[in-house]
Design a protein that fits this description.
The chain is α/β, with parallel strands linked by helices. It is 16% helix and 25% strand. α1 packs antiparallel against α2. The radius of gyration is 17 Å and the shape is globular.
């Protein structure tokens, strides 16, 4: 296991420099992909082969994020909490995946003082396409070979081969 100091140095390098190296079509984008992947290999709970981490992708300290082979973490993505992403997953820009939330049950105190709700893991299967600006909320499982339409808010789980879209997301059809 890597030392805490080493992790802190890698996190500092990622969030202060590597996060900002532009992506395609700007010159040097391949260097950015390479360097972000190398740092991700050290920080993530699991990092598959040949992943792509696009610019401005935020994943906290990476300890609870697992990413399968050849998957892409999209530009400006926000990935918070325990998240498992399968192999060959495509992710558009501005995707938000959250396994965390706030408590809100008490009406006698502000929500900001009620603390975090229990974390609920998010799982994304293999060969899933997550469209631009989609939001996936805590506890959701998206089955393999599914498509999430741009701008969707995914509040519940869907089986394999689903095409889902909307707010809240609903099954549009099944890929057959």
């Amino acid at each position: 296991m890597k030392s805490k100091k080493y992790r802190k140095i890698l996190l500092f390098a990622y969030y202060s420099i590597l996060l900002h190296i532009p992506m395609q079509p700007f010159p040097g984008y391949m260097a950015g992909y390479y360097l972000r992947r190398k740092v991700a290999e050290k920080l993530l709970a699991y990092c598959g082969k040949d992943i792509v981490v696009k610019d401005k992708c935020y994943f906290g300290d990476g300890c609870r994020l697992s990413v399968g082979d050849r998957s892409q973490l999209g530009q400006n993505a926000k990935l918070l909490g325990t998240i498992v992403i399968g192999e060959d997953v495509l992710m558009g820009p501005d995707v938000v995946i959250m396994a965390t939330s706030h408590r809100y049950g008490r009406i006698d105190m502000p929500i900001s003082q009620q603390g975090e709700a229990e974390e609920r893991k998010v799982e994304i299967g293999d060969d899933v396409w997550i469209g631009t600006r989609s939001i996936i909320l805590p506890g959701v499982t998206v089955g393999s070979h599914s498509i999430i339409g741009a701008g969707s808010v995914v509040t519940k789980s869907f089986p394999e081969y689903s095409i889902i879209a909307g707010n809240p997301a609903r099954l549009i059809r099944v890929r057959t």
